[in-house]
Structure formats: structure tokens, C-alpha cells
Amino acid sequence: MQKLFKFNLKLLAKVVLALTLGQVNQVMAADDWHWHGFVAQGLMQAKDSNFVNNDGEVSAELTEFGLNSAWQLNPSFRLAGQLMYLDGGNRYQQGLRIDYLFLNWTAINTLDWQVDLYAGRYKNVHWLYSSTRDVAITRPMIVLPQSVYFDSFRDIAVGSDGVALQSTYSSSLGEIDFNWSVGATPTPREQSQRIISTMISGVTQQDFVHQFSSFFRPVGAKSQWGVSLLDSDFNYRRAMNDIFADGDFTVQRVMLNWRYSEENWELSSEMYQERVSVYGFYAPGVQRTQFGHGAYLMARYNLTASTTLYASYDYFYGNKDDKSGRLLPVQTGGLIADYFGYQRDTALSLNHNFSQNWRATLEYHWTVGTGRLGPNVVPDTMVNKSKYHQLWAVQLMYWF
Amino acid sequence: MKKSALILLLIFFSMLVHADEQPQPPLVVAHSAVTVEKLSKSQLRSIYLKRQVIWPNGDKIKVYMLPAKSLTHQQFSQTNLQMFPYQLEQTWQKLTFSGIGTPPVEIATAEQMLQLIQSTPGAIGYLPYVNEINDAKVIQIQP
């Protein structure tokens, strides 16, 4: 858990330096300092999978608490951060973490062109829901489509320590955003165990994650079109008596996204291809590369001003050349069943706002396949014995 | 043939009547010292989505809104910003909880909104359509 707070010290030093060098020498006005927060508690059950817990019982491990603050130091500089507590059972590492803490410099701010630079722990803004997935009230569903928003990767995907740029340009054709970021995220062992294998005892490190995205909103249209690119390297260094070897991992993703909005309904979709290469790890000298696919379509319908229905269909294939997963038992001597090679999920979610700051959400998922249940590299075949599994969740949330 | 022409004529006149009933879009109003005379819908959206935080002369923009349930807010959202109110709400929540920005300050009534705009340098807001507004600047919104 301590490592969740580990920052890139150089970046933090730059933030402190910027503050102490006189960029901020004015007294804060009350309207320049904002506090917000939220609390969400729920119940959840995933009987035939390890998604929430290993015994399949009803669980209260659906706790989210966040507190964020932002200081508008002057028209060009802003400091913002969010402290978060999560208890999600097997989904996340339990405990406190800092989701973001950055200094924002508004470098260009004209009526048609805005450029913002971020240094510190910046937020991932490259996917449709990447910047809102960590907050219960801004997330459309309790469990987002796992093909793109794989919960085991949550802490790695929410943000990174490094620098980021966001830019929006408005023209007669429409608005176009360009976003770029480079950084790395600390990966404590407990988190690595949720991603790679519960049996690892060595150290995992993300070398870098480099991302770019662009979104276009044509003038007069009700749609948005986007593309995002990701390139990231990880390394694993074995411990004494480790059953795994030293290893290096490369993950590269190309993703297209789209959103269409009407007065009472909205459709959104993301589709990607991801290259995952493993060098070593299973044994010295091993090299393995495979291309995975994933996509979802999510629909929103405003039943009333305070009640919203969401429906989603989501699919994931670990290997696009083996969508049925039939090679998995062959390659592993029967240890891993074919249904670990894919996952298809259909979900319904109902949100109701009781007042301006209270919401209840009820959700159900029907799932075939276990390809998006952690750990991802060496899956849990002891608990995940069923190809078909379901999940229900109910959550009450308050925000201010 | 005559019947068809009559029906077409009736439809044409009913459209004219309907057009007359269309409410005027809310007025976008700023403090009298704001030097901007007109904004495109895209530029107005940048201001209300808190991407644009300063006026061209360097003054800080203070953004005000009416309650989400008010008819004027809903008209402003759809007509002036070309966004549905729920999209605006989603974007403001995203700004708030991502640390990227803060939503506009909510003002209970149009009267209070006008008073604040008149007394706050850099302020911008919107009001139900009226023929004349004193001590504040009406900004023209272009497509």
C-alpha cells in the first residue's frame, strides 16, 4: 500500500519549486479553493467467479470514498488532487491511494485554442470513461465494460506520474482535442498479483506508459469521434526461490471510440486491438506475442429526469487468432480451459437520483467466459470453474 | 388538386404560426466592462465547460448558471451551447472530480443573476429573453 503513494520525486520537486518560486504569491480567494467528495457503499455478489471474492457470498466490499481539492492559484496555474479509499474485494487493492495530484499550467487560453500542461500524477483522459471511472457518481455503471476498463488494471490506468498535455482547438468544422502523456505508475506487489499471478514473489515495475488521443466533435452534429494510442513496457524481476523468471512485457493498444447523443438517449462505444508481448517470465528465453480484441456498446436512456437506464454489451478475446480459446488447453496441458480465452458480458443498470446529491444504482451482469477475471497472465483456475457466471450489485452514493 | 393546394397552404401557415411561437433563446449577458461583443457557440461552450478561463484582455471569467431544472437553463443548454442538459451535467461532474475545473456558480433566480453580472467584473451568465437590459452587456451568439 505504501507504494501507492510513491511519486516521481523529481516531478514532485518541480511542483514544489514552481510554488515556491513565486508563481503563487497572492492570497487565495475563497472562490479559488474548492473541496468536493463522495461516499459510496454497496452490496455485490458474483457466485461463480472470483470477481468479488473467492467464496461467492454476498459481499459489502463495494466501498468507495474520495475527497478532492483544487486551488486556482492564478489564472494560469492550478493545483488539484484526490485522495481515494477503495474496498472492492478481489477487484482492487484495498486501502487509500492518491488518484491524482498535479500542477496544471494553462499555457494558451484564447477563445478558439486552449492548451493545458500537467505535471505530477496526472489523470488518464485518453479513453471515454478513463477520467471518470474512479468516481462512483461519474461512472455510468458500477462495473464498467471489462474489455476496456479491466478492474485489475484500475490503479495503473487511472493516471500516471509524469507529464501530460491537453489541447482543444475550435474551428468552423468543429472542435478537436489533442491529448498526450508520458509517465509511469507504481505497481505494488499486491496489485501485480491481481494482474499477473497470485504466485509471484518478485518485483514488477512499469517502465513507461506513453499515450496519445484525439477527439473530434463536428459542428452541429450530435456525435464525437476519437482515437487513442497506448504504448507501455513493464518488467518483472524475480525473487529468490521464485517459480517465475525475470521477464519483460510490452503492451500496445490502438482504440477507436464514438459517442452519439440525443435528448433522451445516448450511445457510446470503444473498440481496440492490443498487442501483448512477453519476453521471459514463464522461463528464460521464452518469447510470446499475441493480439487481443475488445469492444463494447453502451446505451443510456433517460427514463425520467432522475432515473436513467444503461445497457451494455461487451466482448474481449485474449487472442484474436484463437477467439474460442481452444489453443489454451493444448498449450497448457489442459490446465487452462478454453473459456479463459474470451469474455462476453451483457449488463443492465438502473440509476435513480433521490435528491440532488443522493443516488442508488442497481445492476446485473450475465457473462460467458472468464478472460477478463484477474489475474490475467496466470489465471485462477481453482475458483473460476464455470464458463457462465453472473453478477449483481446495488450501491448507494452521496456526493458534495 | 385544389384540395392538395389548400392542405399545403394550411401546412405552410401552421409552420409560420409555429415559428412565431418559438421562444427566443436566452440572452447571454456579461459585465459591462467585458470587451467581447460576440461569441460563437463553440467559444461559449469553451467558457461554460471551463476550458476558457480568461477574457482576451486577461480578465478572469466568472461563469454563472441558473438551476438545472429551470426552463431558461434548459433552453440555454440546448440552443446556445448545443448540448443536452444531462451532457452538461456529466461534463461538469467530470471537471469537478477530475480536478480539471470547477462548474459554474449556480444562482437561484434570473434577477439575482443579473445583479451579480452587473456587479462582478468578468462575469458572464444568461437570462430569459427581454427587449432591454441595463448596466450589462448582451453578447451576440453566432452559429
Q: Counting H and I runs of at least 4 residues, what is the number of helices of chain B?
A: 5
This entry's quaternary arrangement is heterodimer
- Name the CATH superfamily classification of chain B: Periplasmic binding protein-like II
Biggest sheet statistics of chain A: 16 strands, antiparallel, barrel
CATH fold name of chain A: Porin
Q: Tally the beta strands of chain A.
A: 16
CATH homologous superfamily identity of chain A: Porin
Largest sheet of chain B: 6 strands, mixed
Most extensive interface: A-B, 42 and 31 residues
- Outline of chain B, from the CA principal axes? globular
Q: Can you put this structure into words, describing what you see?
A:
The complex is a heterodimer of chains A (400) and B (143). Chain A has 400 residues and is mainly β. Chain A has a single domain (2-24, 33-399), classed as Porin (Beta Barrel). In chain A, 8% of the residues lie in helices and 53% in strands. Chain A has 4 helices and 16 strands. Chain A has a 16-stranded antiparallel beta barrel with strand order 1-2-3-4-5-6-7-8-9-10-11-12-13-14-15-16. Chain A is globular and about 60 Å long. Chain B has 143 residues and is an alpha/beta fold. Chain B has one domain (24-142): D-Maltodextrin-Binding Protein, domain 2 (3-Layer(aba) Sandwich). Chain B has 5 helices and 6 strands. Chain B has helices at residues 2-21, 41-48, 71-80, 85-98, 110-119; strands at 27-30, 38-40, 62-65, 105-106, 123-127, 137-142. A 6-stranded mixed β-sheet of chain B has the order 2-6-1-5-3-4, sandwiched between helices. The longest helix of chain B is centred in the first third of the chain and has 20 residues, at 2-21.
How would you summarize the topology of this molecule?
The complex is a heterodimer of chains A (400) and B (143).
Chain A: H1 9-23, E1 33-45, E2 63-74, E3 77-87, E4 95-109, E5 113-123, H2 154-158, E6 159-170, E7 174-184, H3 189-195, E8 203-218, E9 223-237, E10 247-261, E11 265-280, E12 287-302, E13 307-317, H4 327-331, E14 342-355, E15 358-368, E16 388-399
Chain B: H1 2-21, E1 27-30, E2 38-40, H2 41-48, E3 62-65, H3 71-80, H4 85-98, E4 105-106, H5 110-119, E5 123-127, E6 137-142
Parallel strand pairs in B: 2-6, 3-4, 3-5
Antiparallel strand pairs in B: 1-5, 1-6
